[in-house]
Amino acid sequence: QMADPFLYDTGERSQYGCLGHEVEIEHIKAYVCRPSFFTDKAVIVIHDIFGWLFPDIRYIVDLIAGHGYITICPDFFKGTDPWKTTDHWADFADWMKDHDPMKVDKEAAVVLKYLKEQCGAKKIGIVGFSWGGMAVHHLMLKNPQLTAGVSLYGRIIRDSEERYNLLNPTFFIFGEKDHTISYDQINLLEEKLKQYCKVAYKIKVYPGQVHGFAQLKPEDMKPDDKPYIEEARKDMIDWIKMFI
Description:
Layout: E1 21-25, E2 28-33, E3 41-46, H1 55-65, E4 70-74, H2 92-98, H3 105-117, E5 123-129, H4 131-142, E6 146-152, E7 170-175, H5 183-196, E8 201-206, H6 226-243
Subcellular location: Cytoplasm, Cytosol
InterPro entries: AB_hydrolase_fold, CMBL, Dienelactn_hydro
Organism: Ibidorhyncha struthersii
């Protein structure tokens, strides 16, 4: 029996009444929330393994939209099943083979086109959580149309030195108590970025926080964690605002 790598319990969640609406773009469904005024700034949110319907991720979309961005969370799993809390961790590696966070380019291109042509977006940022954090790291190396990125606790894949040559400013957020990402990995990331990265980047580790900490809704936060969760979210928004 593998230990559950996500220490936050996805079962005990309060319901969430979304502020946005669902759209269909080519072969992809997406959840969109817009601010009440016109803006040409947008943010793509990439969900974690629990998918685009998960209440926590919709809360994040609404939160970012509240700061004045057209915010969209596409279904990067393209209608296939997300990971479920009832699934067995022994099957996780197989599930990941069919849900590769490095194979998101096509979907990202479809969503970028939609934001530019249908929504009038001129500057587009991206944030992603866990699985989505890995996808953001990948896209910030591949897609120059993304003006800035925030990767939240995405496992760091070390396949080549090219992994550190980011195209645009990227902020990496980690939890100190995340047992899926070691300090050694974070230190190596920092070392390599110093060596290869030619754009602005930032790495920050939040004390006492486990994997998945930054996407909790207020009523699901523990009082001790709340200040760090709020700080991480403010840091995420501030990074986006700096560049977009």
